[in-house]
Amino acid sequence: MKLELQNITKSFGEKEVLKNISLSAESGCALGLLGRNGAGKTTTIRIAMGVFPADSGSVSLDGRRVSDSGAAFGYLPEERGLYPKKSILSQLSYLGQLRGMRSADARQAAIRWVERVGLSEYLNKPLSTLSKGNQQKIQLASTLLHNPDIVILDEPFSGLDPVNAQLLKEIVSDLVKNQKIVIFSSHQMGYVEEFCENIAILNQGNIVLSGNLREIKHSYPRNRIYLETDGSSANPETIRQVLDQAGVLGLVVQILPFRSGYALTLSDAQQSRLILKALADSVLPIEKFEVIEPTLEQIFVEKAGETI
Amino acid sequence: MKQFLTVLRYEYAGYLKNKVFIIVTVLFSVLILGGLSLPSIMGLFSGLDTGTSGEEKTRKVLVYDQSGFYDSRIFDGLPSLYQFTAVPSLTEEEARAQIQSDEIYAAVIIDQPQHYTLYVDQLSMDAASENYIGNLVFQAIDTEYKLQKMQDGGLSAEQAEAVLTPVESNTVETSETSFLSGYMLSTFMTLILYMTILMYGQLVATSVAGEKSSRAMEMLITSAKTNNLLFGKVLGACMAGFTQLAIFFVVAVAGFLLNRSALSGYEELFSILASSGGQVGYMFLFYFLGFFMYAFLFGALGSLAGRTEDINTTSMPITLLFVVGFLVSMPTTSESVMQIASFIPFFTPMAMFSRICMGYTTLPEIWISVVLTTAVIFLIGWLSAKIYRLGVLMYGKPPKLGELVKMLREQKKY
Question: Distance between CA B317 and CA B332 in Å, rounded?
Answer without folding.
Answer: 25
